[in-house]
Structures are given as C-alpha cells and as structure tokens.
Design a protein that fits this description.
alpha/beta, 2 domains, 8 helices, globular, Rossmann fold, seven-stranded parallel beta sheet, 308 residues, 16% strand
C-alpha cells in the first residue's frame, strides 16, 4: 500500500528519551511507520535536529561563533593599550592583522610581535583623521592582504579640560580622531563589504558616551557622537550582512587614561581593567555569529557602581 502522505501522529517518546513528546515522520504503511518502530523514527528526527544544532552552535555559552583564521583585520590605534591587546589577541586566532597608528615605531613593534607568534601582520602609519591617509591605508591593505573582513575603530585621544577652558584646536583634535576618523575608516571599507555582503565594524566606545563627566566635555561629545554614528551604520549595513557593534569599556589601564587615573586615589589602580580584558570582549563580539547579536557590550569595573 502507498504511504499516507502528510499524515503525522504524535505520542509519548521512548522512556530512554529526555524529550517528552515525539512526532512521526509521516511516512506510514498500513498505519505503521516505515521505520521499524515509531521510536526509531523519533530518534532519527532527534538525531537530525541535534546535528543541525551542533552545526550552528558552539563555544561561548552555546552562541554560534565564526573563526577569525585568515580574516583580514584592521585595528586603528594599535600601537599601545587596547589596540595592541586586540591585535595580539586576534593574531593568536590566526587573523591577518593590519595595525594602524600615527607613530610608526609603536606599530612596527606590534607587527613584529604578531609575526613572532607566527601570525601575519603589517604596520601602516596613518592619521585616520586625514582622508587621503585612510584611502591609502585601505588600498595597501587590499593589495597586500586582501579585502577587509573586520574593522576595529579603536584610535582615540582624550583631553581633560572644562568646556570653558577648551580651545577650538583641542576640540578639533579630539573630534577628528574619535569621530571623524571612525567615519572615514568606516566609509572606506563599507563599499567593499557591501559588495561581498559580509563584514564587521567594531567601534570602541566608552562609558563617557553614555553619560557626562566633568572635565571631559569634548571627549564625551566625541563618544556620544560615536554612538549615533554606530547606530546608523548598523541600520545601513544590516541589509548587506554587515554587523556593526560597540564595545564600551570603563576605566582601563592605558596611556589614554593615565592623566585621568592620576586624579584618582592611588589604590584605585588595582580596580581598573586591563587592555587584555577589553580585548577579550572585542574578540567575543568579532566572533559572534548566528541569529543573536550584541549591539553594545558594556564593560565596567567591578568596583564601580552597578547599573549606573
């Protein structure tokens, strides 16, 4: 007799199964499953489902992940601090690193460290606030390593000054690096990513982009602007498979925050996070795959006030 198509039956699963219900495959002959027993049918369906889950999921808490091996990654502000830590962390996963900063000596050392651990790394001195420098940096990256897979906009400067005492030159310097540089680098890689219908842009924000702090007027303004730009980039990149995320650390032990840390109690230093801890957060965002995504990852010092 021909199988009854579209017929399904449900019932209790075998006692050995952790799942309470099963659904038969629907291929019935004389009312019996084509497989030897309905239990076998159930187990085949369960095995197929588990195989799909295993293919999709893995690693960080069951979250699907993508490998960085062979991926071309640009890190700006990579000569020290968080940028350096991110470059070395990604290199350890097999990524091809392009380390960018204005100081050639610093990024030359970082690129050498990347190669010393068996990775691929090139150093490109550039002022990311300069349009021609950014264009040349992207062109060289494409020529030597291939199209950019991941852009990490990390470069940043900070000036501690009340707004009333901040000069126009200081304003322009901070906005130029922290916001204009992100705009120029992101704009440069977007057409390439859109054509390939894939790519990631990770912007390093700050808790100063979520609230205001005295003496940090221009810095807060630049990071608040970064949030707005990131939101629009995420919306415009989404139809092309481009993920845009922000990682927002609080106090970290870097040269950027050295002046700020000097205004705090000496005992606070041990409470500040390390660049390597921030790099782990960036790595998590860069490898996140599947239906779930994290628009912003906030990293605060454990000793600071929760949910402020």
């Amino acid at each position: 007799m021909r199988p009854e198509s579209g017929t399904e039956r449900s019932g209790r699963s075998p006692a050995s199964s952790p799942v309470a219900e099963y659904v038969c495959c629907g291929a019935l002959v004389d009312g019996e499953c084509l497989f030897e027993t309905a239990a076998m049918c159930y187990h085949r369906r369960a095995a197929d489902h588990q195989a799909q889950l295993n293919l999709l999921l893995g690693g960080f808490g069951g979250q699907a992940k993508v490998s960085l091996k062979g991926k071309v990654v640009i890190v700006t502000g990579a000569g020290r601090g968080i940028g350096r830590a991110v470059a070395l962390r990604f290199a350890a996963e097999g990524a091809k690193l392009v380390v960018v900063a204005r100081t050639a000596k610093q990024i030359d050392r970082v690129a050498a460290d990347v190669r010393a651990q068996g990775g691929t790394g090139i150093a490109i001195p550039a002022d990311i606030a300069c349009e021609s420098d950014v264009e040349a940096m992207i062109a060289r990256t494409d020529a030597e390593l291939g199209p950019v897979d991941v852009l990490i906009n990390n470069a940043g400067v900070m000036i501690l000054r009340p707004v009333a005492q901040t000069s126009l030159e200081e304003w322009q310097e901070v906005i130029g690096t922290n916001l204009t540089g992100v705009f120029l680098c992101s704009r440069a890689v977007l057409p390439l990513m859109m054509r390939r219908r894939t790519g990631r842009i990770i912007n390093i924000g700050s808790l100063a982009g979520r609230r205001g702090y005295p003496d940090q007027g221009v810095y807060c303004a630049s990071k608040h602007g970064l949030y707005g730009l990131s939101k629009v980039l995420a919306i415009e990149g989404q139809p092309y498979g481009i993920r845009v995320n922000v990682v927002s650390p609080g106090g970290a032990l870097t040269e950027l925050s050295k002046e700020l840390l000097a205004t705090r109690k000496p005992s606070e230093a041990k409470e500040w996070m390390t660049p390597e801890e921030v790099a782990e957060g960036v790595y998590y965002i860069a490898t996140q795959e599947g239906p779930a995504t994290t628009d912003e990852l906030v990293l605060r010092r454990f000793a600071s006030e929760p949910w402020r």
